[in-house]
Amino acid sequence: MAPYPYILPKRAMNMMSLDNSSYSTSGSEHDSLSFLVNEFLENDYASTVDTSSYNDSGDGSDSDSVSKSNFDRAIQASEEIKKLLDPSLKCNQLFSDLKEAIEGLELIKENRSGFRRAVMTRLREKGYESGLCKVKWEGSKGLAKGNYEYIDVAEIIDGKEERYIIDVHFAAEFEVSGPTEEYQTVLAAVPEAIVTRPDEMKRVLRIMADEAKRSLKRRGLSVPPWRKRRFLMAKWLGSYKRTVNPVSASVELGIIPLASGGTDHVKCRKVGFFLPQPLGSYV
């Protein structure tokens, strides 16, 4: 498959310090989307949501007016997310095939990495150019170290390659402790499984980062590193390595058993990986 038609400027990589030098995998390496992270952080704050309404009222308005304003903002944000993640507008057949691929895999769903790989393999069996994308980045100023996995699909549409990001645990990545009613309204608009393009993902992540920050602060909690916008952008829009192997390299080497018996978490850490836990459990 030809590389994705994006070029990562060296200056963007340097600014983000997304160092994959110690990250070994059986997949090919793609720096195609990291530029989105830097461009978003430095320049691109455009969104169809009226972000001016995201600012808390500091003009002495009474609590009822502030509450109504917050709720109106949450409704607006949730509607925007629904529109951005609506598969019927861009990839209805792919989303339908994704749901079919997920069926019957409930027994391995707790093993997130294995579940994603199984879904990716089923999509390939259906004829899609799907792969498992592994992201890992080193920490830098303002960005905590982390790693993540998701699925992607590349399709040729009208002679142009289109890339779709697929996440089968998407909503769980935005759960927070003690969410406000407004945040629950926004989170309810986020589906468990999503198919979306990178530019739409960028806008969704911005909305969710802003709303999570607002909810946490309203509860008197600080915003942890993994809830910040830069971290979210690195997870889904950072440079990645892509594999299409139906079985992980670690399993092939006999490092990790195929069935999750409660010890694969520890064994994965020995080779630099671990099964991602829901980020909400750390808040």
Description:
The protein is of the alpha+beta class and 283 residues long. The protein is 39% helix and 14% strand. It contains ten helices and six strands. A six-stranded antiparallel β-sheet has the order 1-6-2-3-4-5. Strand 3 and strand 4 form a beta hairpin. The longest helix is centred in the first third of the chain and has 22 residues, at 63-84.
Give the oligomer, counting copies of the same chain as homo and different chains as hetero: single chain
Which regions are unreliable across 5 or more consecutive residues at pLDDT < 50? 1-25, 32-61, 250-283
H/I helix tally: 10
Helix proportion range? 25-40%
- Strand and helix order: HEHHHHEEEHEHHEHH
Question: How many E strands?
Answer: 6
Helix vs. strand class:
alpha+beta
For the largest sheet, list the strands in their spatial order.
1-6-2-3-4-5
Labels describing this entry:
alpha+beta; 39% helix; disordered N terminus; single chain; 283 residues; six-stranded antiparallel sheet
Condensed summary:
The chain is about 40% helix and about 15% strand. The protein is α+β, with helices and mostly antiparallel strands and about 280 residues long. Strands 1-6-2-3-4-5 form a 6-stranded antiparallel beta sheet.
Q: Could you outline the blueprint of secondary structure elements for this entry?
A:
Layout: H1 10-16, E1 28-30, H2 34-42, H3 63-84, H4 92-102, H5 112-125, E2 129-137, E3 146-157, E4 160-167, H6 181-187, E5 194-196, H7 198-218, H8 229-237, E6 240-243, H9 249-252, H10 264-269
Helix pairs in contact: 1-2, 2-8, 3-6, 3-7, 4-5, 6-7, 7-8
